[in-house]
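Quick one:
INPUT:
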């Protein structure tokens, strides 16, 4: 069984014993040093997008290229229409579906993606999400990636947030923060970053959930396109923003 997120927030305290904050050993596990800094500053984010696994999946598909407020409006429309279930959504005509999700933007494109996911879900397991939860995460990931419009970030969001599988979700904030802290060599592929995260951060669903949420918070508040390093919880760790301010 994995440790709790709170335990990770203080894990490694003994290895830092006798050292000042400035001497904290990035070399031991730089990612867990970053995690602890963020958790200590921001606390638990309690980021559980969606009330049900199906809602999480719909949200993961709708959130591409828009903000969560717009996604919530679209999901609210689906809920009000009684369509926020695999069977309910699958029964909608394409035009009706795209109209209901209009607030999420690119609604025809996203309606097609939702329809593709639902076609696969019903072909694959009769629309029963519980049947997917027992599948091997790597196999399920491959299957999700074959569905029209589902890329690695969406697939991994579904695996982590809907099915509780320990898969690290990488996004633009992750790449920007790690790049500025010299943990990536140049522009990195999604898979390269994910594999690095999963090799250095203990496999734990709650930890991966929390870490991703903390990186998003850091990216929104400090590590923006134009970095605000002053006062940032990672300010005293080695970093280089000049080459990545674009
Ligand atoms: S704002 Fe500066 S110190 Fe903070 S994470 Fe970004 S590069 Fe690092």
């Amino acid at each position: 069984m994995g440790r709790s997120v709170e335990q990770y927030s203080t894990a490694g305290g003994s290895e830092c014993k006798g050292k000042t904050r400035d001497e904290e050993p990035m070399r031991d596990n730089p990612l867990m040093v970053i995690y602890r800094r963020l958790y200590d500053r921001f606390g638990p984010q309690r980021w559980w997008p969606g009330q049900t696994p199906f809602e999480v999946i719909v949200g993961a598909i709708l959130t591409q290229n828009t903000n969560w407020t717009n996604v919530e409006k679209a999901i609210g429309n689906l809920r009000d229409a009684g369509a926020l279930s695999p069977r309910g959504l699958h029964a909608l005509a394409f035009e009706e579906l795209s109209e209901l999700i209009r607030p999420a933007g690119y609604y025809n494109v996203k309606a097609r993606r939702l329809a593709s996911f639902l076609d696969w879900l019903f072909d694959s397991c009769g629309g029963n999400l519980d049947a997917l939860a027992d599948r091997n995460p790597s196999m399920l990931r491959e299957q999700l990636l074959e569905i029209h419009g589902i890329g690695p970030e969406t697939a991994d969001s579904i695996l982590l947030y809907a099915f509780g599988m320990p898969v690290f979700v990488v996004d633009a904030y992750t790449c920007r923060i790690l790049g500025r802290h010299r943990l990536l060599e140049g522009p990195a592929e999604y898979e390269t970053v994910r594999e690095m995260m999963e090799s250095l951060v203990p496999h734990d669903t709650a930890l991966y959930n929390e870490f991703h949420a903390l990186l998003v918070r850091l990216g929104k508040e400090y590590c923006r396109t134009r970095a605000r390093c002053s006062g940032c919880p990672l300010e005293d760790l080695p970093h280089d923003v000049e080459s990545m301010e674009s």
